[in-house]
Amino acid sequence: MQTSIDTIPPLMTRFRPAAAPRKPAPFLPMSRAEMDKLGWDACDVVLVTGDAYVDHPSFGMAIIGRLLESQGFRVGIISQPDWQSAEPFRELGKPRVFFGVTGGNMDSMVNRYTADRRLRHDDAYTPNGEGGRRPDRCTLVYAQRCREAFKDVPIILGGIEASLRRIAHYDYWSDKVRRSVLADAKADLLLYGNAERAVVEVAHRLAAGEAPRELDDIRGVALFRRVPDNYTELHADDLDAADEGARQVAGDVVIRLPSCEQVEQDKEAYARASRVLHRESNPGNARALVQRHGDRDLWLNPPQIPLTTEEMDSVYDLPYARAPHPSYGDAKIPAWDMIKTSVTIMRGCFGGCTFCSITEHEGRIIQSRSEASILQEIEKIRDKTPGFTGVISDIGGPTANMYRMACKDPNIESSCRKPSCVFPDICPNLNTSHDDLIRLYRKVREVKGIKKVMVASGVRYDLAVKSPAYIKELVSHHVGGYLKIAPEHTERGPLDKMMKPGIGTYHRFKQMFEAAAKQAGKQYYLIPYFIAAHPGTSDEDMMNLALWLKRNRYRADQVQTFLPSPMATATAMYHSGVNPLRGVRHGASEPVEAIKGLRQRRLHKAFLRYHDPDNWPVLREALKAMGRADLIGSRPDQLVPAHQPPGTGKAAGTRRPVRGDGPKPQRFTTKGVRLVK
């Protein structure tokens, strides 16, 4: 299972095509009528998705569908089916090879509910933004309906919802630990991460007659199987002990995580499982993991080998229609409108932020496209996007400025188990050069018909300060009014639990940003984002953040409250009350305060919106209880005034437009904060 990248043939040529080359479909069919037009009597693969079908590489089902099409398979799409019966899942007939099931680009529970567990009434991945078009935990529901529709067809789970629920996991919405989605969905295999390598091999081997249970040697696959006799089991009671044991064992090793039943009953066991899972995420050294579920063993193979630049190019150069399926007519799909003029240049993130699930899904090794492929896509946007105005809305990825960054030494990279390359400090082995990205920006600006190229992806500012030339390039050419960045907090306690840099790095970036803007003759603003109620955050931490916001004349328009997404390290903190970033041992684990009560979560949100009169009563009460009544008053150094305006606070029947307690703010607003003049 420790296959090296040197032994894997290129993605697109590893297998002989399943059929003679055929002309790509204008869109992958969503109906029998479309299949008839293509001359198909059946589909080889049917992909079921919780999103509207947009044939564009920003949508997972389009990538997987077009990739399988390029391998000679006939692929159909069932998008947002009515899940009340199995009949909609029979729409395209019985697939000859397998059903592929995905919840879509987002976890369905994150998509449907707010951090306060309130139902959202819209869905950006649905025509006209209509809410309610997918069920809760839709990967699970769709898989069960596929099984009802055709009992003997293999069912393969994929996408971020399946990826983040591949082992026993804490589910915030039910407030309990749930089994792996593979067990509840009664599917055959689960492919985690960006699954191009795995899905190509699975499709070809299933088509050749192998059974799903025989595909236990494919990286990035989870399935139920027994531990082979030739494997040595190491128990994850302590990660350091497992590492020491592995050094003394020759041959194949599997690490046994605490069982599903154990992590349900023992929160420290849950934190220990989370710690081991995250430390076993490097494709260069990860070992197989096994977790008991009742009378069966859930087996997770090591992660897939990252795609090379040539392979990334081949995936993004597939013949996408770059539009929503025609069946939607004139309906607007908000997610499509947001990304239709944006370009993804890389995948992955080595930041390791504990509240974020990017690393758990895409990995921490950066996979970058070539300049030629990126420029070609920009020309397609220019030539094929109706109403294109010459503005590329974003050029980036999970992070805007990690393009082509990697460890200086491949041997060190393949052996490293650190969860972050930039925390607590930037690793000296990390190449932080922005030269390739600067060169790309300049070439993109030279494309005929391109007037402006925006950078809307979040900039990792602790990396950016290493390159004054990058900041100058960014500010001079790729910012439009304001730039969003995410310091997340000001206090060291919560920042350490987030694995984020100190606020001093933000100040250095802000100084460099403003100097570059002044030199360029621009008036630009930084829009910092902050999180309320993150594990490890005290009421005093939030009070100090609010004071920092007021001193720096920032007012939050919208507040991001910590949402415990499945599998994130911060979610393990939230559920277990201990810190899995350090050793997890019974009676000796580092405790972490989790903000679970609704009253305290609302207080933390109120501190972020200190300027809102409706929050002043609860803030006055809290400040008095904290012994900080000195912060109540009208002086500039005080947080909230002593007197309540009529019609606001608890006495207010409805919310008034917020003007705050300071000078009139600028007229522009964002999802983050606004600067008060």
TrEMBL record:
Q: State the needed cofactors, names only.
A: [4Fe-4S] cluster
- Source organism, top-level taxon: Bacteria
Region labeled Disordered — which residues?
635-677
Ranges of residues in domain Radical SAM core: 335-601
> Could you tell me which SMART domains the record lists for this protein?
Elp3
User: What are the protein's UniProt keywords?
Assistant: 4Fe-4S, Iron, Iron-sulfur, Metal-binding, S-adenosyl-L-methionine
- Please name the InterPro entries in this protein's record: Elp3/MiaA/NifB-like_rSAM, Methylthiotransferase_CS, rSAM, rSAM_horseshoe, rSAM_sf, UPF0313, UPF0313_C, UPF0313_N
Q: Name one Pfam family in it.
A: Radical_SAM_N
Query: Where do the annotations place [4Fe-4S] cluster binding?
Result: C349, C353, C356
Query: How does the cofactor attach, per the note?
Result: Binds 1 [4Fe-4S] cluster. The cluster is coordinated with 3 cysteines and an exchangeable S-adenosyl-L-methionine.
One GO term in the molecular function aspect is: iron ion binding
Which family is annotated? Belongs to the UPF0313 family.
PANTHER family given in the database record: UPF0313 PROTEIN YGIQ (PTHR32331)
Q: What name has this protein been given in UniProt? A: Radical SAM protein YgiQ
